[in-house]
Write a structure and sequence with these properties.
The protein is mostly helical. The chain has one domain (about 1-40). It contains 1 helix and no strands. The radius of gyration is 18 Å and the shape is rod-shaped.
């Protein structure tokens, strides 16, 4: 019975990690140069990055 509980906890942990990975890679916009989140960069009105 103990191993079933451990298996359920481990599988929920990996499912949570998978969902977080998909959300970060697929839904959040990233900078094309450095791959950081685009919200961390200053941008001009036309969409280009400030130096």
């Amino acid at each position: 019975m103990r191993w079933i509980q451990w298996w359920l906890v481990a599988s929920m942990y990996f499912v949570t990690l998978g969902i977080a990975f998909v959300m970060k890679r697929g839904l959040i916009r990233h900078c094309p140069q450095c791959k950081h989140m685009r919200s961390n960069h200053d941008m001009r009105r036309d969409g280009s990055f400030m130096d």
